[in-house]
């Protein structure tokens, strides 16, 4: 579809949405005498935001924090229940053979079935404007996975891919019983459906698989602000293990601390949620917006790896990003905090629990009991103790960085090369030019394929290769941010060690 055609089709979609009662005008009455031509225009407009999610929703006027900016009636939400109104689908899905499939697997199958109806689907105007492909971790091939470089991230990706594969295999019988078209039975189609759900479904109280929300799923993401980190205090941490993880909009859970979980719940109230009284999904402004600014939604609290896993993007500045470093059991066995609370913050500072656990670990065994109350309250135990903890951190960050195949400067150079690859119009020449770059770039070129352009003369990368480039870029961006956090931690430790050494105050010698 060309640009103008695409625009027209999108306008038809917004009109379709308006006729179904979707509205960005809080006073809009459903029994309007005139048929609306768009569901947007009063509070929101669709715009391109190249630095934050591309297509998204901008403020059509100045908006005040807390204002209702969009309402999507329950009848328009795409849920398992609404899709299962199809009699054939319902009779097959409810057959007991498939009772072991999860709600999300069932929703994915129903979505593929509905997509298979093409133009005759009631939701066709919505489906037309869904992304064709996604960059979530489950879609990563071996090449992009290795580009992450860090074992933890590679392991998370392998797990995401194998989970998607096994869920697809489990759902195969049902999809075959529904006689889905061959292209909808493939693993690629399955990843598409799962990624559509993972990256776009919103939380609803009556179905853990969530719902797809036309127009409501055009909001891009901004991380919940610094305030969630301020919540990191002793009380929250001590209670962490007794609280269950909160199910996020994508049906996944985050391994975050209880304090952050409490924050997610209150965050969701100001952002959006299903309102029983209005029988609609309602979205509220989380802050004041000036006309033209992008209106953003906080889907939850995620690290960059979690954002990549569930949504297929990451943030340059993510206040919730974390780096976990390998710890020996002896380092956290003297304290009762969970291991997942021990990490390095995105600004390079060790988390409260990591620092406290290491302070206890660096204390001679016969003193541990007497200082544990100080460690639990977050106090430094002594200058010597603090210095040995920070030296341990420093050494380990250096070891981790030295074990990775490239340094940040090389990665940044590679990012510019990736941009060149993408913008180069004659890949044959590019191939010659880049083969000298060696390593990762050559591995990419060996795996890439070229195809004839529309006029038959020039050669172009295939769509598949373009998607590889996009994921490769994400992997390199991710590892740069990871290394930056470790570098910042090294600076933080060095500065603090220097300052403590110069003060030379040691109220309690422990080591
Ligand atoms: C619910 S959709 C938002 C609308 C989406 N941009 C669209 O055009 O359909 C979520 C997806 O938008 C993109 N996205 C959202 N927020 C983003 C951000 N801050 N930076 C980059 N991409 C973002 C990601 O691809 C994500 O999976």
From TrEMBL:
Protein name: SET domain-containing protein
Pfam family, one: Rubis-subs-bind
The UniProt record lists the keyword S-adenosyl-L-methionine: yes
Superkingdom of origin organism: Eukaryota
Alphabetized UniProt keyword annotations: Methyltransferase, S-adenosyl-L-methionine, Transferase
Listed GO MF terms: protein-lysine N-methyltransferase activity
GO biological process: methylation
Keyword check for Transferase: yes
Species whose genome carries this gene: Dovyalis caffra
Taxon lineage: Eukaryota, Viridiplantae, Streptophyta, Embryophyta, Tracheophyta
Domain SET: 42-300
InterPro entries: Rubisco_LSMT_subst-bd (IPR015353), Rubisco_LSMT_subst-bd_sf (IPR036464), SET_dom (IPR001214), SET_dom_sf (IPR046341), SETD3_SETD6_MTase (IPR050600)
